[in-house]
Amino acid sequence: MTGPIRYTETPSPLGTLLLTAADDGALTSLSVPGQKGGRSVEDGWVRDPAPFREAEEQLAAYFAGDLKEFRLRLRPHGTAFRQRVWDALDAVPYGATTTYGEIAARIGAPRAAVRAVGGAIGANPLLVLRPCHRVIGANGSLTGYAGGLERKQRLLALEGSLPEAW
Q1: How far apart are CA 43 and CA 47, in angstroms?
Q2: Residue 149's CB: how many other CB atoms inside 10 A?
Q3: Are 88 and 125 within one domain?
Q4: Do residue 114 and residue 146 come from a single domain?
Q5: Nearest to 28 by CA among 12, 10, 5, 50
Q6: What are the residue numbers of the active site?
Q7: What is d(CA 77, CA 156) in angstroms, rounded to the nearest whole number?
Q8: Beta partners for residue 8, in sequence order
Q9: With b meaning 16 or more CB within 10 Å and e meaning fewer, what string describes 20-33?
Q10: I need a surface site. Which of 9, 73, 88, 126 has the fewest CB within 10 A?
Q11: Is 163 a member of any domain?
């Protein structure tokens, strides 16, 4: 049996981040204010900053430009297909971008699966930590970020990978 959801909120350049964790401290979500499909604190949740200290330190270093790769235990909930897509996101390095089609190819999905890949990326429960902001349209456009295109633009600018069209 699992206990109540533990959470903390931490300030960031993107707004107050809401983090949730599993019983063992593995992160299950990171949401930004107004995020499409994002989480918000619910009755019965327990504020407990202790399991989030390492995540807060790494996020602060990332936003300061001092961290290029997160080393945190993540445990998002999703289908096997979504997990494959999210794992492929983890392989996109800091300062780089990729396309939805490239993610589909990386997981061995047919070209026709690009829409499903986009849906899985849009359902990413760990914004920033799992870099869905690094996925852009095939034409270089900034598309489909659940946290809002302004935040996607800020993250790509921070990483020095904002497409020239922007």
Answers
A1: 11
A2: 14
A3: yes
A4: yes
A5: 5
A6: 132
A7: 26
A8: 19
A9: bbbeebebbbbbbe
A10: 73
A11: no
The domain that contains 96 carries what CATH number?
1.10.10.10
| Mean of pLDDT over the chain | 93
Q: Read off the pTM.
A: 0.92
For residue 144, what is the DSSP state?
-
> Which of 17, 49, 20 is closest to 34 using CA atoms?
17
The CA-atom distances, in angstroms, between 18 and each of 4, 32, 141 are 16, 6, 28
Could you tell me if 126 and 74 are in contact, meaning their C-beta atoms sit under 8 angstroms apart? yes
- Name the domain count of the chain: 2
**Domain range for residue 125?**
80-158
* CATH code of the domain covering residue 31: 3.30.160
CA 104 from chain centre, in angstroms, equals 18
Within a domain: 44: yes
Which tokens is 33 given?
């204010």
Q: Which residue has the tokens 């204010």?
A: 33
Residue 165 counted as domain residue: no
pLDDT score of 59 more than 90: yes
The 3-class SS string of 38-99 reads: CCCCCCCCEECCHHHHHHHHHHHHHHCCCCCCCCCCECCCCCHHHHHHHHHHHCCCCCCCEE
